[in-house]
Amino acid sequence: MDKLTEELLELVRLAACDLPPDVERALQRARDAEQGRARSTLDWMLKNVEEARAGSIPICQDTGSLVFYVDHGRDIRTAAVRAAASEAAAEATRRSYLRPNAVHPISGKNSGDNTGLGAPYFHFHELDGDPGALRVRLLLKGGGSENCGVQYSLPDRALGAGRDLRGIKRCLLDAAFKAQGFGCAPGVLGVGVGGDRMTSYMESKEQLFRELDDENPDPVLAEIESELTGKINELGIGPMGFSGQCTVLGVKVGLRHRLPACFFVSVSYNCWAFRRRTMVLEDGRAIYS
Ligand code: SF4
Fold first, then answer.
1. Which of 48, 145, 182 to mutate to test ligand 1, by most ligand atoms within 8 A of the CB atom?
2. Tell me, which fold does domain 3-15+59-142+274-288 have in CATH?
3. Per-residue pLDDT tens digits for 188-204
């Protein structure tokens, strides 16, 4: 196994088995604010997180799809990164960090190693500056949460949502309400407003890489994020739908310029098993966060 494959294998292991610190902190805060069944549910989640970390065991049985975001200098060959990441995914499956999760869309036959037609998924972005720079971000997106993703085209008459801030907020409340019973709560909403259908969804997933306790530099978006986190939590759905104060750990919103005739609001839901990790090469060494 070459060096890059080994480094990416470690990235996959961390993503699958070691919940990021900001997500764990948010779950702890939520646990401390809850009582009864909601509190014990969060306690079990946190115990699960500790055991997964200690034993390099997947946090959830659905280890999700592998979505790689690769930012690279001009000297980095994208084909080499793709090959190394695919080999890392296959080896991670052999080591049981990942469940075999790539099935043929028609036959349903499982490839057995998380590789296949267009799998894993990659987004490449070339950077200016250091030609040898490499940053790889990995999102493991489980099926229960991915199925809760939704795209609205405003105006939406059924929802009473126009092309304005009020309309956007209605979409987010609707998405969170409809996710109950599907994506394991408490979750996080990544939101893309604007763009075309594809880039709007891309923006919504990009938002999932933000730290949960950061603040949006755009005051209008910061206000939406804070207001909607509060309003969704007032729905009372609670951890795993057992009712309680915490239905979402956060809402993160990004914008893309849109066509005058289009107004998309795209939501990517991520469950409490919020598996995202980053690897950056610094002076030839892999640094993980
Ligand atoms: S929604 Fe998340 S926590 Fe629930 S089964 Fe799917 S991956 Fe696991």
1. 145
2. Dihydrodipicolinate Reductase; domain 2 (3.30.360)
3. 999 999 999 999 999 99
